[in-house]
Write a structure and sequence with these properties.
With 181 residues, the protein is mainly α. The chain has one domain (2-179). Helices cover 65% and strands 0% of the residues. The longest helix is centred in the middle third of the chain and has 35 residues, at 52-86. The mean pLDDT is 88.
Length: 181
């Protein structure tokens, strides 16, 4: 609840207007642009919009609820990221102590819960970590990772963190299997 409340604040980042216009353009044209339609200097250069899914979602929310809808949606996504990340813990941990250790990360993360594509990166990263944490007992969860990765690739340019986290997980499991022989 605190994460949600910390994320509910005024929108000061002017990039949201570019993202909104991009989402509106995609909804009007039924495709992602292959040239940047908004910047004069690059209007004739091939361009890949790496945040098109975020932009479409934000444009839809803006059309149906204005800025408050954007703030509330991103606060909800950020809160979900915190909840998922906080769930990745041993059941033996003393919960009040775990919460105390989470406070600094939680406060720092909440400043990134603004209407920006990286709020989804926090969610996807938390989901990846949660899946890897639970994978030894529930290996079928690993099948959710390709779906998460496809969403991530189309939402924010930091999607490369998914394969990086996966590589570290594989390296960890390889080292663990070598050491446990």
């Amino acid at each position: 609840m605190a994460a949600f409340l910390l994320a509910c604040s005024q929108v000061f980042d002017p990039d949201i207007w570019w993202h909104l216009r991009g989402g509106q353009w995609i909804l009007q044209n039924h495709r992602a642009p292959d040239l940047d339609p908004f910047i004069f200097g690059s209007a004739d250069r091939v361009w890949i919009d790496l945040s098109w899914l975020f932009q479409v979602l934000m444009a839809f929310l803006y059309d149906h609820g204005g800025i408050p809808a954007l703030v509330l949606a991103c606060a909800a996504v950020g809160t979900a990221a915190v909840a998922i990340a906080a769930s990745v813990r041993s059941r033996r941990w003393f919960i009040p102590l775990a919460l105390i250790f989470w406070i600094p990360a939680f406060v720092l993360m909440s400043s990134r819960f603004r209407p920006r594509p990286e709020v989804f990166t926090l969610l996807y990263l938390a989901a990846f970590l949660a899946v890897f944490y639970r994978a030894p007992g529930r290996p079928a969860l690993l099948w959710t990772l390709p779906v998460l990765q496809v969403l991530w690739v189309n939402t924010h340019s930091l999607f490369i963190l998914g394969p990086v986290v996966m590589a570290f997980y594989v390296i960890d499991k390889a080292i663990e299997s070598i050491l446990l022989r």
